[in-house]
Amino acid sequence: MKKFAVFGNPIAHSVSPTIHQMFAKNCGETISYEKVLVPLDDFEQALSSFFSDPMAMGCNVTVPFKQQAFELASDNSSAARAAQAVNTLFKDGSGDIHGYNTDGMGLVRDLIAHGTELKDKRILLIGAGGAARGAIMPLIDESPASIAVFNRTRSKAQEMVDTLSHDRLAVIDKHNLNDFAADIVINSTSASLSNTLPDGVSPQLFTHCELAYDMAYGKSRTVFMGYAQQHGARKQLDGLGMLVEQAAAAFTIWTDKSPDTAPVIQFLRDNV
What we know:
Rossmann fold; alpha/beta; 10 helices; 2 domains; six-stranded parallel sheet
């Protein structure tokens, strides 16, 4: 039986086992998938122990170990290198462990699944943490007109933009935010998890907004989604679809099979 797992701390809240078991059933695979609570100082040992099992094919990695997973992988995908973080590891037949970051791929797949056109669009990305880093290159690959990055700490956004160095990518200051006229506004911060708005968000951000996307999700609409709707955003989405789509990308890396994501998204929407 092929063995998979998700490593994190905390990890009890993870729905990854449910998602991947549904994928396996959809694709005719028999797998085991467990949640592994890893002590903060023991990730490398936990990973080594897991992959010592010949049936262990791959794993997901969540906070706070994504950067460490990037450093431990034998090699990393271009998206992982851009993010400097890994959320998916795969052991090949030679025993080498490859690192991937599927977060941005999941975001783009979810946007496209909802009929969002990214080509030639002006995108505002709020936040400059790991979620933003993982999203940028897959977004750029869709040929938007521009991506402006706003972060409460400007230097952090500037560092990220300078590292990636792309002509469609720039930092935007707080006093210029309302002049950007974004078609798509993406919140990559964790503000919604504490029922607050990201710093800098104002009604004017959504005047021309076709879509307001919050990477967070929950049982009800996030504060960001509600605020965006109230101030003119024509459509609002949360990050549940992104969660499932990034998991599907990982499942494909491990098994070379592409699961149907729609029923999984609907199941989680109804039950989680």
